[in-house]
């Protein structure tokens, strides 16, 4: 049964079963492959997207549960927080293999949009569900702090 999704500010009709995970609707139907599959069980964060600006695990979110909420993927991230995060990620050379990084950036961007000056504890809490097998955690935290400073000085 077709399901209508608003993704990156455009409406799409996806002809898939309502219980299809949002991750697969994005990757297989809309060819938005920046969102990654890791565990499929809400454990790793690789599949993180925003629903109405809140980070969610798209691997366990059926498309029937999205409703009118706006989906944003790494391909559609354009906010000032996203720009600051991207610049800090480049400056700190955060990614190694890169596989987890779109999920990390989605979580970091949502954190900064809701908390312009996050403490170490707030960063750790917000990012705890994003696993990085290359262990880039120290650089991720540094980049988030730099992004917060650049947003404050903007
Ligand atoms: S693939 Fe969704 S949390 Fe791991
Ligand atoms: S950069 Fe390789 S898994 Fe995170």
UniProtKB/TrEMBL annotation:
PANTHER family (UniProt xref): BLR6218 PROTEIN (PTHR44379:SF2), OXIDOREDUCTASE WITH IRON-SULFUR SUBUNIT (PTHR44379)
A Pfam family the protein falls into: Fer2
Organism: Candidatus Doriopsillibacter californiensis
InterPro entries (UniProt xref): 2Fe-2S-bd, 2Fe-2S-bd_dom_sf, 2Fe-2S_ferredoxin-like_sf, 2Fe-2S_ferredoxin-type, 2Fe2S_fd_BS, Beta-grasp_dom_sf, Diverse_Oxidoreductases
Protein name per the record: (2Fe-2S)-binding protein
Domain 2Fe-2S ferredoxin-type: 1-77
Stored SUPFAM superfamilies: 2Fe-2S ferredoxin-like (SSF54292), CO dehydrogenase ISP C-domain like (SSF47741)
PROSITE patterns documented for this protein: 2FE2S_FER_1, 2FE2S_FER_2
Key words, A-Z: 2Fe-2S, Iron, Iron-sulfur, Metal-binding, Oxidoreductase
Lineage, uppermost ranks: Bacteria, Pseudomonadati, Pseudomonadota, Gammaproteobacteria, Candidatus Tethybacterales
